[in-house]
Amino acid sequence: MVPDTDIQQLRTPPHSIEAEQSVLGALILDNNAIDKVADVLKAEDFYNEGHRIVYEHINRLAASNSPADAVTLSESLRAEGKLEYVGGLAYIGAIANAVPTAANVRRYAEIVRDRSVMRRLAGVATDIAEAAISPMGKTADQLLDEAEGKIFEIAEMGDRSKQNFISLSELTAQAIDRVEELYRRDNASDVTGISTGYTDLDRMTAGLQPGDLIIVAGRPSMGKTAFSLNIGEHIAVNLKKPVAVFSMEMGALQLAMRMIGSVGKLDQHVLRTGRLTDSDWNKFTDALSKLDSSPMYIDETAGLNPFELRARARRLARQVGGLG
Q: Which of 38, 65, 93, 118: disulfide with 14, CB 3.0–4.6 Å?
């Protein structure tokens, strides 16, 4: 039988009191060290509530260009009636003497941050398990989307803390590689990305480039959906590259009917009424043949948040070997 103390230890959320004390001690020792941890650490990353409060007060003093030593920090805490709650002046003094130097403060902060991420993961895992046991009418696919969204949200928070400045010398080296790659390509076209199917647009943009975020804006009923669908249709039907379409307003069948009309050069009214002539039937059959072999996928789920959308896109990319 496992001893009760061991069971209790297993249930304790991941944390490192020593690392938290070391971060706070380093910041008290060298207030300028706040710049080394501000992009990694937030108050909520501390497991100990008292440490969260101390960190908030150190940040507040630093923001007002006031020194944050053991005395001024204690006075700041006392002014809000929180000094005794965090352990009193003696504890602040002990924290201040916890480290001999602030040189390793970044590493201490990363440890605190890692434990915080682990706690969030544990919390999300519990939520996922509870949702699976009591789905409250949700389907398995909906639960999977929510679970992936929550995990990616945590992952994205961690990724942001790892991002840093890139020197211009590194970027110029990458630019040289990119230009040389384009220079050596066999295709003489000026379209270096993915063609949109619109010649003038391709001429201006050189095609859709990796990493681009392109926003199509316009007044209602000006053709935004039709324009976007035409681009996706060209990429999937003519270039045979996988395309994902997320439609949170129009149904998937309605979008499919639009594409059938576009590819087959058929009037939408004819498709809605079913009054097809012999010539229309030939166009209809030809359009179905082209679309049936095209790697386009439509998701009509309403109300997706960015994390859920990203999770679904990643899952589809894994299934089809990447997206166009």
A: 118
Q: Are 258 and 248 in contact, with CB atoms under 8 Å apart?
A: no
DSSP-assigned letter for residue 234: I
Q: Tell the residue number behind the tokens 């997206």, with chain if given.
A: 323
Query: What are the distances in angstroms from CA 210 to CA 206, 245, 314, 324?
Result: 12, 17, 15, 9
Kind plus residue range of the DSSP H or E element containing 229: helix 224-233
Torsion of Cα atoms, 46 then 51 then 57 then 60, to 10°: -20
Least confident piece of the model among 26-30, 183-187, 190-194: 183-187
> 62-76, 117-131, 259-273: which range is least confident on average?
259-273
Those residues with Cβ within 8 angstroms of residue 264's Cβ, 6 or more apart along the chain or in another chain: 283, 284, 286, 287, 288
**CA 41-42-45 angle, 5° bins:** 85
**Angstrom distance (rounded) from CA 57 to CA 138:** 44
| Amino acid, res. 288 | L
User: Distances in Å between the alpha carbon of 269 and those of 159, 265, 276?
Assistant: 49, 12, 10
- Bridge partners of 243, per DSSP, are 296
Cα-Cα-Cα-Cα torsion 66, 72, 77, 83, nearest 10 degrees, comes to 160
What b-and-e string marks burial along 102-128, b requiring 16 or more CB atoms within 10 Å of the CB? beebbebbbbbbbbbbeebeeebeeeb
Domains of the chain are: 1-164 (1.10.860.10), 215-320 (3.40.50.300)
Tell me the pLDDT band of 183, cut-offs 50, 70 and 90: confident
User: What share of residues in the chain are helix, strand, coil (percent, to 5)?
Assistant: 65, 5, 35
